[in-house]
Amino acid sequence: MNFPATRLRRLRATPALRSLVRETHLHPGALVYPLFLCEGEGIRREVSSMPGVFNLSIDEAVKEAEACAALGLGGLLLFGLPDKKDEQGLGAYDSNGITQRGLRALKASSAAQSLVLIADVCLCEYTSHGHCGIVTRSGANSADYAIENDASLALLAKTATSLAEAGADIVAPSDMMDGRVAAIRSALDAVGKTNTPILSYASKFASAFYGPFREAAGSAPQFGDRRTYQMDGANRREAMREIAQDLAEGADMLLMKPALPYLDIIREARDRFDVPLGAYQVSGEYAMLHAAFQRGWLDPERAMLESLLSIRRAGADFIITYFAKEAAHSLA
């Protein structure tokens, strides 16, 4: 029936009524908090472009994890910041590397047992050139280089197995090399880690919104960019092909990155693929909102929760976000 018999405002009259009929819900257990692990002890170094986000020594990361567990968060996504870097990214698959030691420390913390520990699998934080794979050069000019896809797969697989053996509950390849999911699945199975899931950054776009992360992780490319392996932001259909390929290779879960500029990609992936689906509200999204908060242009709590709700409404089962702790406080 039409107005006036049908009045959609009837179900919006009170907070209790709005809550009762709400279609999409946020809860702390669907939020994952990224942690940046650095060498040293007692270190809590704020990232200038990301207010409230810190590079943490392992002892401080354990304290942070305990706070996250108390808030009921779903998990942590771990990135490592090594003291030394090299062309091959040796620190990424060193059994005594920063992330591997962090995983063991977190696993030993009883308060953090409720958290799912997700380890990012990439070489960019560990390579001296800042790229996500092996680089070959054909001349003296910095533009004369190539990222070697197939040569990088073995190192990514070694990284994933090293992280799984150190205690990662999930390994999450973010490098965007073709074939890396199959290589990682084969390597995990070969060392008896058949039950370790792979969360694939299946459609990771070459985005302008990663800038603050590269400050936090010290992972900016020293030359060139990542457009030859990360996706072109114009290509929705290609994103679906990337996802289908990763699932065929053995991915158990999907991660969309970034989130807010790519809500249409999240929605289409949700409609097409019946697997657990996450979205990463990346550093630039966080920094952009904080810049508006600092100027009084947006209400911090309302804008934060609305941005997260939009990602959930688009179809994400879980969200990786630097707002995770603040959001959990607001949702309590």
Key phrases:
332 residues, alpha/beta, TIM Barrel, ten-stranded mixed beta sheet, two-stranded antiparallel ribbon, 11 helices, 12 strands, 38% helix
Can you characterise this structure?
- By secondary structure, this protein is an alpha/beta fold.
- It has a single domain (35-331), classed as Alpha-Beta Barrel (TIM Barrel).
- Helices cover 38% and strands 18% of the residues.
- Strands 1, 2, 3, 4, 5, 8, 9, 10, 11 and 12 form a ten-stranded mixed beta sheet that branches. A two-stranded antiparallel sheet has the order 6-7.
- Strand 4, helix 3 (98-108) and strand 5 (116-121) form a beta-alpha-beta unit.
- The chain is globular.
- The two termini are 39 Å apart.
Computed Rg = 20 Å
Major β-sheet profile: 10 strands, mixed
* Nearest-integer average pLDDT: 95
Helix and strand composition category: alpha/beta
Strand content: 15-25%
- Domain module tally: 1
Shape summary: globular
What is the fold-level CATH name, i.e. the topology? TIM Barrel
For this structure, what is the CATH homologous superfamily? Aldolase class I
N-to-C CA distance:
39 Å
Short note summarizing the structure:
The chain has a single domain (35-331), classed as Alpha-Beta Barrel (TIM Barrel). Helix content is 38%, strand content 18%.
Topology diagram in text:
Layout: H1 15-20, E1 31-38, E2 44-46, E3 54-57, H2 58-70, E4 75-81, H3 98-108, E5 116-121, E6 134-137, E7 145-148, H4 149-166, E8 170-173, H5 180-190, E9 199-204, H6 211-217, H7 236-249, E10 253-257, H8 263-272, E11 277-281, H9 283-294, H10 300-314, E12 318-321, H11 324-331
Parallel strand pairs: 1-3, 1-4, 1-12, 4-5, 5-8, 9-10, 10-11, 11-12
Antiparallel strand pairs: 2-3, 6-7
